Structures are given as C-alpha cells and as structure tokens.
Amino acid sequence: MLHLTEDQIDELLMGSLEAGVAAQMREHAEACEACATRLAEIETPIASFKAVTLAWSDRRSATMPVRPPRLAGARWGMGFAWGSVAAAVLLAAAIPVLRHEQSVRVQDAYIHAIKLPSANQQPGTPAVAAVNSANANNSSMQNDSTGTDVQENAQEIASDNRLLAMVDEELNAPIPAPGSGERPATRGRGQSRTNTQGTVQD
Amino acid sequence: MALVFNGMALAFEAVMTPMQAADQAGSELDDIDALVRTYRPRLLRFVMFSIGDADLAESITQDCLLKAYNRRASFRGDCSVNTWLTSIALNLVRDQQRLQKFRFWRQARATAVDVTEAANFLPSQESSPERTLLTAEKSKQVEAALENLSPNQKMIFMMRFAEEMDLAEIAEMIHMPINTVKTHLHRALKSVRAQVAAAK
Question: Would you kindly state where each structural domain of chain B is located, as residue ranges?
C-alpha cells in the first residue's frame, strides 16, 4: 500500500470512510512509520485540545451557578420585574383610554344635542345642553330614530361632519404647559407644524 | 448470571424505539440539576470555542440549559441528549452572531483560554510536568488554528472533533450538504497542520 495522502488522513479523521477502508488505513499506519508520524501530527494536537478544553470547561462550569439563573432563586425578582413592567404597560395604556373616554363623552353629548328638539337647546351651548339632558332623553332619541331614512342619513352626515370638526378643534386646542401657565403647549399634527415653522408666538 | 442480565439489558437498549429512548431521556431531562452536572461542561466548551468569548459562552450555556429544560417535552429521542443540547446551543450561538452583539475576532483573542493553566487540571495520567506542557502546547496550536476559521468552520470542527458527531448528524443540524461540511473540515484540518508546522 502506498503512503497515506493528506486527503486520506482527513477523510479518516472525519469518519467519512467505510469501516473496512478505515481499518485498512489504520493497519497501514501502524506498520508504516512515515504515515504514523503524519497521522499523529494531526491527531495528537486535536486529542490534546479536547482534553485541555474539557479540563477548562469542567473547572469553569463548577464556578457557575448550579442552576440557570432564571430557574433558581430569581423567581421573586423576575416576578417583581414582570409585575412592574405589567403595571407600567397598564398605566401607559390607561392614560390614552381615559382621555379618549373623556372626549367620547363630549362627542356623545354633542350628538345628543344635535338630535334633541330645538326647544331643549340653549343657543351657543349645544354640548352643555346635551350633558344636562342627554340621559333623560334617551327614550325621545329612540323615537326620533324612527323618522325617514333620508332625513336620518342627512342628519347623521351633518352630525358626523360637526363631530369631525369638533375633534379637529379638540386636537388643535392649546393646552397650558405644566408650570408656565402661559406658554401654549400644543398637541396634534397641524399645530406641531406651525410650531416648527415658528408662526406661533409666546 | 450478571453477564446474562447485562446482555439482556444491552439487547433491550439495542431494540429501543425512539419513543422509549425519549422516555428514558425524558426522566433525565426532568432533573435540571443532573442535566447541568452531566452536560454543562461539554456545552460550555462547544459554545466557548464556537464564539471565543468565555463570559458570553457562560450566558449562552445557561440559556441553552434553561431552554432545554423548558422544552423537554419536545425531545423526541431520535438523537442523544448531548446532540439535542448541542443543536439548541448552535441556534443560540447563531442568534448571537446574527445580532452582532460582540466583536467576534477581537474578543476571541481578548478572552482566550489560559491553556497552560487548564492543562494542570487534566486527569492524572497526563500529570507529568513534561507531558502536561506538551499537551498544553499542542492544544494551543489547535486553538490558534481555530482563530483563523469562520464561525461555521469553528462550529463544525467542534461538532466533529469535540462532540464526536458524525458527518450526517452535523449536516442535518447545520442544514448543509455533507460535502460542504467536509469542505469546512478539510479547511479546519489544513489550518491545524499550518499551526503545527509553524510551531516546529
């Protein structure tokens, strides 16, 4: 048998040869000093690496916590952390909901005001009139809703338009900044644009 | 009598179905302390020499064991527990590499294992000072060779030569054709030879 090539030695180490062929090559290497040396030149460093790195990882592993941290001891800590996160998320979610609820009440009142008979309305203060009488007039609203479809649709469109206008107004309304009292802090896209353009003066 | 009993046990193991193997491994996986004791050093070694950062390797190894424990019901028993754990570690290492949370090559040098010190903790047959020194030197050559390999080549080298997985298992785990796995291993072995030659 000829000397083993580098590729053959690689194949032997990779375990990609058939058992019979591998055994034949090992047999040859035992009898041939040159091939034994070449095989040992690559096998010995790998065996040393395996032994030394396992000695290292055995030792390092022994210095690590016995259990993965999230499984042991950290339950209370994690519970508290998750609790805090959940509370923060709930709070963050609750603020816009509460604000929305507030504005929805105003909108409802406005819709009621539109649908109420004109005698119940105070000119110039439709929302206030509605707030005062909306609950008391639920039944009359139901009666109103039995009118003709065309009228109802026109009324709905008109009320929607007014509602949208009111929402716009609400969004663009200046809100006093905390502390200053005078400085007009704004919300809403349109107002922000005017601020960046510098058209709003203090 | 004992011989007969042993023979029967071996025969039983030989005909164990994956389901039975899963049941057997399942009880092993249920005991987190035993899992850590038995598999953590090897897992740590695999991760460490795949990414080259000891602190990160510790963290990934712990994550891996935690994940394995939480997902123990999904272990089907079609491979050994060690191979299954290695596949979880492999995915965690790859996630880490994808996130690029660390500077791979630089840190490999910064947190390299102190081989000479580690060699002092080898089992007793390696304990003569000359032999220990020689073993440490040879191990260093392989470590140096690994530094010149790509992350995939390192992982494949570790799977084959540290975890002793066969080519088909590696190919399946890393989603590569066997020939590509072989090409990476040829490259790794060539790198080891270059380091051995440089040390002469």
Answer: 1-112, 113-200
Q: With 70 as the cut, is the pLDDT of residue B56 above it?
A: yes
Where among A63, A87, A110 does a domain terminate? A63
DSSP string, B117-167: HHHTTS-GGG-SHHHHHHHHHHHHHHHHHHHTS-HHHHHHHIIIIIS---H
Contact B50, B161 (CB under 8 A): no
CA of B59 to nearest chain A CA: how many angstroms apart?
9
Between the CA of residue A149 and those of A111, A140, A145, A153, A191, what are the distances in Å?
Answer: 17, 17, 9, 6, 38
> Which of A46, A71, A75, A78 is the best mutation test for B, with the most CBs of B within 10 A?
A46
CB contact under 8 A, A14 and B160: yes
B177 versus A163: the higher-pLDDT residue is: B177
Residues A53, B48: C-beta atoms closer than 8 Å: yes
Residue A14: name the closest of B115, B141, B171, B14 by CA. B171
A112-116, A130-134, B40-44, B56-60: which range is least confident on average? A130-134
A97-120 pLDDT per residue, tens: 555 555 555 455 545 554 544 444
Final residue belonging to a domain, choices A18, A35, A63: A63
Q: Looking at the domain that runs over B1-112, which CATH code has it been given?
A: 1.10.1740.10
Please check whether residue A13 is in contact with residue A43, taking contact to mean a CB–CB distance below 8 angstroms: yes
Model pTM above 0.80: no
Nearest Cα of chain A lies from the Cα of B128 at a distance, in angstroms, of 14
From chain B, the residues in CB contact with A12 under 8 A are: none
Interfacial residues of A (vs B; Cβ cutoff 8 Å): 6-7, 10, 13-16, 41-42, 44-46, 48-61, 64-71
Q: Provide the domain count of chain A.
A: 2
Please, which pLDDT band fits residue A128 given cuts at 50, 70 and 90?
very low
What is the CATH T-level fold of the domain B113-200, as seen in this structure?
A: Arc Repressor Mutant, subunit A (1.10.10)
Residues on chain B touching A38 (C-beta within 8 angstroms): none
Q: Which of A10, A45, A71 sits opposite B66 (nearest CB)?
A: A71
Give the domain range for residue A137: 99-174
Could you read off the pLDDT of A188-197 as tens digits, one per residue?
Answer: 444 444 444 4
Token pair, residue B195, equals 């380091």
Chain B's closest residue to A7, CA to CA, is B186
